[in-house]
Design goal:
Double-stranded beta-helix; three-stranded antiparallel β-sheet; 15 strands
Length: 282
């Protein structure tokens, strides 16, 4: 198996290279990739230009595939491959994509364990904007002073789609604003997620509305500070997309967001997800 891994930054990000494309579709490769995702948070496969079938094959080799987004898109590709686009001819409700301009984790407000990993292929790369930024909440938690770690233990945040879309609520057409804002469930999650292997990450991002038992201003200020802490250069990575790039990231230990871009750029990503095996646990 001729797959090589080269770290991009000290705490986050690894670039993948290979001798033969077929090397990426073996059981040995799947195990190595999954382990490296858990270790390094973000894997980048430069300009590999996967087909939907190949992306699904890698997705299913890493674990059970899961569909997160309601089938609103008018698309002709595989129903398990979600097209991330602001093109209203394909996506008649682009508000959810606009919401990805802000730090978030996938699947935090649904009634199942959050996805282990998200996989994204670049089909159309914009000339301006549209980069994806990642922030490791594993590394960010580990970097906190011990007294701050202790202060976070036992705290829970309330998460909702409404909270995550609040920065763009005024841009949602009034005729369906309430329906869009109230999709999904309202969920309570511990701020610190203790995983089955003992590692700890933080469950933060714009879905987190307030902290249980704390005055709303103070709780929201804490959530903002934690997101800012995780987004500092030591724990974060910005990926400038080229057509054909493929990225996998550990959704259970990272926030991500898209740098804003105009819909006229035609930016198009194909997304799949690997189901999670762990519910968020204190």
């Amino acid at each position: 198996m001729a797959i090589r891994f080269e770290n991009i930054k000290e705490c986050i990000g690894t670039r993948v290279s290979w001798d033969d494309r077929a090397d990426l579709f073996t059981p040995e490769a799947a195990q190595a990739i999954r382990e490296k995702v858990a270790e390094r948070t973000v894997l980048v496969f430069p300009e590999i230009s996967l087909t939907d079938e190949e992306q699904l094959a890698i997705t299913q080799a890493l674990g059970d595939k899961v569909r997160l987004t309601a089938r609103n898109n008018v698309q002709s590709n595989d129903e398990d491959v979600y097209q991330v686009t602001l093109d209203e001819e394909i996506n008649p409700q682009p508000e959810y994509v606009l919401g990805t301009f802000f730090w978030h984790m996938d699947g935090i407000t649904v009634d199942m364990p959050p996805p282990f990993a998200t996989l994204l292929s670049c089909r159309i790369a914009p000339a301006l904007g549209g980069e994806t930024e990642f922030a490791s909440t594993y590394a960010a938690y580990e970097g906190l002073p011990e007294e701050e770690k202790q202060a976070l233990e036992g705290l829970k945040a309330v998460h909702s789609v409404k909270a995550s879309l609040s920065p763009i609520a005024d841009a949602i057409p009034e005729k369906h604003r309430e329906r869009v804002l109230n999709i999904g469930l309202v969920k309570e999650h511990p701020l610190v997620w203790t995983h089955g292997d003992g590692r700890k990450s933080m469950v933060i991002g714009t879905t987190a509305d307030h902290i249980v038992g704390m005055e709303v201003p103070a709780g929201r200020a804490m959530l903002v500070r934690l997101a800012e802490w995780a987004a500092q250069p030591a724990y974060s990575l910005r990926h400038k997309w080229k057509k054909g790039d493929f990225v996998i990231w550990d959704n259970t230990g990272a926030m991500h967001r898209a740098v804003p871009y105009d819909k006229s750029t035609g930016r198009m990503m194909h997304r799949t997800s690997v189901a999670g095996a762990e519910a968020v646990a204190a």
